[in-house]
Design goal:
The protein has about 300 residues and is mostly beta strands. The chain is built from four helices and 16 strands. The strands form two sheets. Strands 11-10-9-8-7-6-16-15-14-13-12 form an eleven-stranded antiparallel β-sheet.
């Protein structure tokens, strides 16, 4: 039996809870780790980072200290390359870990001429394989005039084709969509005026070199291996990540259902494109996607 002067248990619990809530919160202190970072030249320094830091945080710190852009850094711990976008702790990096920085030479994208043509031919042609489906785009032919802000595009499929022109100065689009059964359908509409040179510059500026070998799309083939999709034509090639929308208006058999994006570009040592990877992404809820390889030919006109 509870005595008259004793408080009920529930009241005591409420008072204890109130006392705890009124106590000032002590901020959680995240410990720091010290890393020894060295260049191949022999120069080294110590960097302090939070224990929760990521490899990107480390790259940013190295860029600030040694003026090496983060995208040109290859980080080696022991004899293993540090993956991109992971926490240092998950990669086994701890206090007093030794990090070696290798500066990767990244080729500059070549500056295109004022007037040029770009021909994209699907890798199925090179490999003498059938297209994945009848409406698949086998060839993209583009003619670009940077001074006139003008683009002409022709899309070739197995049984039919489309063509379209974009006038950036007038803000006009016109063309025809072809169908092997019903023939061609003309279209014309307005578009937002644009500067073609600025558009290309923005694409070139967003291109990021792919340095992590685990993220390579194009890989080397063995000596006895036959040519295949996404195989390097030369070890001197360099892979760039772009991920820009290929806005071709109403072109393409499934233009209303599928978004086409320029995902990656493979360039030679001089910065000229050799191959591209185009992604077809469905606009429906599950957004299924597929990557297709195209061989690139670029020439001045």
């Amino acid at each position: 039996m509870q005595k008259a002067h004793e408080k009920p248990t529930t009241e005591l619990a409420a008072e204890a809870s109130q006392a705890r809530s009124s106590m000032p919160e002590v901020p959680m202190v995240i410990p720091e780790i010290q890393l020894v970072v060295s260049l191949l030249s022999g120069e080294s320094t110590s960097l302090k980072l939070l224990e929760t830091a990521t490899s990107q945080d480390l790259r940013d710190a190295i860029a600030a200290k040694f003026s090496i852009p983060a995208k040109q850094q290859k980080l080696i711990v022991g004899d293993v390359e540090l993956p991109a976008g992971v926490s240092l702790g998950a990669s086994g990096v701890g206090h007093d870990s030794q990090i070696t920085v290798v500066k990767v030479a990244v080729p500059q994208l070549a500056t295109p001429p004022l007037k040029f043509k770009v021909n994209l031919v699907c890798a199925h042609e090179r490999l003498k394989q059938r297209a994945p489906y009848s409406g698949f785009t086998m060839v993209y032919d583009l003619e670009l005039d940077l001074e006139a802000d003008h683009i002409k595009v022709q899309v070739l499929r197995r049984d039919d084709s489309d063509w379209c022109t974009f006038d950036g100065q007038k803000g006009k689009v016109e063309g025809e969509m072809g169908h092997w059964m019903s023939g061609s359908t003309a279209f014309q509409h307005d578009c937002q005026p644009f500067s073609l040179s600025k558009l290309l510059s923005s694409w070139m500026a967003r291109a990021e070199p792919v340095l992590d070998s685990s993220e390579f799309l194009w890989t080397e083939k063995d000596r006895e291996e036959r040519d295949d999709f996404f195989k390097l034509p030369s070890p001197a090639c360099f892979e760039l990540h772009v991920d820009a929308p290929l806005q071709l208006g109403r072109l393409g058999r499934h233009h209303s259902d599928v978004e086409v994006r320029l995902k990656k570009v493979l360039v030679d040592s001089a910065g000229w494109p050799l191959r591209v990877a185009l992604e077809e992404r469905e606009r429906c809820l599950d957004k299924r996607s597929a990557l297709h390889e195209y061989d690139v030919t670029l020439m001045a006109t």
